[in-house]
């Protein structure tokens, strides 16, 4: 490594799933902009982060698990990857570590490094996390716990700051990148996929984790069969991500109506614009659909063993992000035994048939953009400037 390269700030970024990959890639792109390209990256990420110049330590698909009992079978590999990541960070000695989402993995890495620091180890760089644990939805005590071992937290929702500032953690609201998501070209996508301009289109989004897809697609598939019996001209679009794309294609190939599987960020937004209604797994994509003004029913299932624990710990009214932010049920939510083809079919048919649904969703989208944005500076750039400040990287000097 040349002396010039060695002196270029190194930002180590860890993202363990598709939503984190998207957020981290936007931040990386903004960091390159504010530093005039005088920045280096290392860490763990997916396709979008690789496109911004990251060589991932290992595939993030290995980390895409959630729930108590879903994690247990993966625990040995998870622990090995945590150990490997910590060792790589210590060897590279970055100017800052930024972990993004994927709390089961990321916060364990952060905690190990904090313990090394407390023991006098070589951890002089700031420990920063982006995307707060959903303490407002379940286990609020986690705010106190993570405040002990992080130096800074970047949150996406304005109501999150007080939960962590109460415990002395420096917390910055950076805004949600989805608030600036583009409007897609639905007409163009319909033309390319031979969907008639006036044909009704249902978007089906079964999640980004293999377990989600495995549990939800059978229920979603039966719902599609019932809806096509009611709406014979119905067409199906299935936006997905690379980590589960083959699994999704294999499952939907026998659905009626020839489901069209779509990959890529640009095509996802085109699909949003082409949809009349969506059926989606609970997660970040439901907020993206709300911001796109798509009437959406949300379904979710966890393993039967995790469900009783979740019911005791989770505030179910806060699970669907748009509903939590706006304080009203913008998107109907069906969990576990309530996530059935019968219930989903009735809900989606109501969204198709209610002429007010799209107008109501358009109004909600405008409210959400105002609440989640940060004005003239984009959320990704706000995050990049916050990271640069925490690392002592001066954009004015390096740009």
Query: How many discrete structural domains?
Result: 2
Low-confidence stretches: 307-313
Which percent range describes the beta-strand content?
Answer: 5-15%
CATH class of the largest domain: Alpha Beta
> What distance separates the N and C termini?
22 Å
Tell me the CATH superfamily of the largest domain. Answer: Glycogen Phosphorylase B
CATH topology of the largest domain: Rossmann fold
Strand order of the largest sheet: 2-1-3-4-5-6
Query: Which bin fits the share of residues in helices?
Result: 40-55%
- Cα gyration radius (Å): 21 Å
| Beta strands, count | 12
Can you count the helices?
19
Question: Mean pLDDT across all residues, rounded?
Answer: 89
Report the oligomer.
Answer: single chain
User: What is the approximate shape?
Assistant: elongated
The class by helix and strand makeup works out as alpha/beta
What's the helix and strand layout?
Blueprint (H helix, E strand, L loop, with lengths): L2 H5 L2 E6 L2 H17 L5 E5 L2 H5 L16 H4 L3 H18 L3 E5 L2 H16 L8 E4 L11 H6 L4 E4 L5 H5 L4 E4 L12 H7 L8 E5 L4 H21 L4 E6 L4 H8 L7 E4 L1 H10 L2 E5 L2 H8 L4 E5 L5 H8 L7 H6 L6 E3 L5 H13 L3 H16 L6 H13 L3 H4 L1
Parallel strand pairs: 1-2, 1-3, 3-4, 4-5, 5-6, 7-8, 7-10, 8-9, 10-11, 11-12
């Amino acid at each position: 490594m040349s002396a010039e390269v060695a002196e270029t700030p190194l930002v180590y970024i860890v993202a363990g799933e598709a939503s984190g990959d998207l957020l981290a890639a936007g931040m990386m792109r903004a960091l390159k902009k504010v530093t005039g390209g005088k920045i280096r990256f290392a860490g763990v990420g997916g396709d979008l982060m690789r496109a911004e110049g990251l060589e991932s330590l290992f595939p993030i698909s290995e980390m895409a698990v959630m729930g108590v009992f879903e994690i247990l079978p993966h625990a040995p590999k998870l622990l090995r990857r945590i150990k490997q990541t910590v060792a790589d960070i210590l060897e590279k000695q970055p100017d800052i570590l930024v972990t993004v989402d994927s709390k089961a993995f990321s916060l364990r890495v952060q905690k190990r490094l904090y313990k090394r620091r407390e023991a006098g180890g070589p951890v002089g760089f700031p420990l920063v996390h982006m995307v707060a644990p959903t303490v407002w939805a379940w286990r609020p005590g986690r705010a106190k716990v993570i405040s002990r071992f992080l130096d800074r937290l970047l949150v996406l929702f304005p109501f999150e700051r007080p939960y962590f500032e109460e415990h002395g953690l420096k917390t910055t609201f950076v805004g949600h990148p989805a608030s600036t998501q583009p409007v897609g070209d639905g007409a163009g996508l319909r033309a390319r996929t031979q969907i008639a301009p006036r044909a009704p289109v249902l978007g089906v989004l079964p999640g980004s984790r293999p377990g989600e897809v495995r549990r939800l697609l059978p229920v979603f598939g039966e719902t599609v069969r019932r809806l096509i019996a009611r709406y014979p001209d119905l067409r199906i679009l299935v936006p997905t991500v690379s980590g589960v794309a083959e699994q999704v294609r294999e499952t939907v190939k026998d659905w009626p109506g020839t489901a069209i599987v779509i990959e890529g960020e640009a095509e996802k937004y085109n699909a949003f614009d082409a949809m009349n209604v969506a059926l989606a797994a609970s997660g970040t994509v439901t907020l993206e659909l709300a911001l796109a003004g798509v009437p959406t029913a949300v379904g979710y299932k966890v393993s039967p063993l995790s469900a009783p624990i979740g019911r005791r710990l989770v505030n179910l009214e806060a699970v669907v992000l748009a509903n939590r932010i706006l304080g009203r049920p913008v998107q109907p939510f069906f969990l576990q035994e309530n996530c059935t083809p019968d219930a989903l079919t009735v809900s989606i048919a109501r969204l198709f048939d209610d002429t007010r649904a799209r107008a109501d969703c358009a109004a909600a989208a405008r409210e959400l953009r105002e609440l989640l944005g940060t004005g003239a500076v984009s959320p990704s750039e706000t995050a990049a400037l916050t990271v640069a400040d925490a690392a002592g990287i001066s954009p004015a000097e390096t740009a």
